[in-house]
Amino acid sequence: MEKNPHDDTGPVHVPLGHIVANEKWRGSQLAQEMQGKIKLIFEDGLTPDFYLSNRCCVLYVTEADLVAGNGYRKRLVRVRNSSNLQGIVVVEKTRISEQYFPALQKFTVLDLGMVLLPVASQMEASCLIIQLVQEQTKEPSKNPLLRKKRALLLSEPSLLRTVQQIPGVGKVKAPLLLQKFPSIQQLSNASIWELEQVVGQAVAKQIHAFFTQPR
To answer: Start and end of every Fanconi anemia core complex-associated protein 24 pseudonuclease domain (predicted)?
Structure first.
């Protein structure tokens, strides 16, 4: 498989309908759930965990990765800084790891501007990744993954969940906010006054603090 040996975030040849997976996932529950539904090709030395196409990849952050600290960040930054790849971050959000999720959420969505998709388990993740591969088989004009400006459209359910995690927002206010501010970038740049028009003063201050407090 042709790949620049000096740049393990470079494009990898991915046959249509296949996934190129990092060797570390061989034998895992995640890989076993996907096998039989899609063909996996295992490769050593990849920075991403899964290549869905030549230029789209998944970075998978496990529950253990989150609990262990910020070690996962280096991988995310390498892919984010690569001109060759569009990275999607899939994270295991469980009862054990949920306390660490807000920091990951801020870093991934706000600092790096990457798509973040939380999952509850590797079984759920396998279904999600297969769906993402199916997106890759669409014509480029119909595939939101291949249109950078619309990358967040892919993650509308995830975007909704992300906004729901902001203190004071929850399931009721999140859709209202996204109607007014359809991207994280717009929401983070909104003034307290603009936010008040949607959610009231108290919650507006909480949202504003969430985005402006030092990281």
So the answer is: 12-134
Cα separation of 94 and 202, whole Å? 29
Asked if 85 contacts 79 with a C-beta cutoff of 8 angstroms, the reply is yes
Q: Is the pTM of this model over 0.85?
A: no
- The first and second tokens of residue 93, run together, are 């959000």
Strand pairing report for 50-51 and 18-22: antiparallel
Inter-CA distances, 152 with 36, 55, 116, 200, Å: 29, 17, 9, 26
Q: What is the tens place of the pLDDT at every residue in 121-165? A: 999 899 888 888 876 665 444 444 444 434 444 345 667 777 877
41: β partners:
20
CA distance 68 to 75: 15
Residues 209 and 204: their CA atoms lie apart, in Å, by: 9
Query: How far is CA 26 from each of CA 49, 99, 118, 126, 187, rounded to the nearest angstrom?
Result: 11, 29, 22, 14, 40
Kindly report, residue by residue over 46-104, the tens digit of the pLDDT: 999 999 888 889 999 999 999 999 999 999 999 988 877 788 899 999 999 989 999 99
Residue ranges of domains in the chain, CATH in brackets: 18-141 (3.40.50.10130), 156-209 (1.10.150.20)
Q: Is 137 exposed, middle or buried (0-12, 13-18, 19+ CB in 10 A)?
A: exposed
**CB atoms inside a 10 Å sphere around CB 153:** 14
Distance, in Å, from the CA atom of 28 to the CA atom of 49, rounded to the nearest integer, reads: 12
| Strand-pair category, 86-92 with 56-61 | parallel
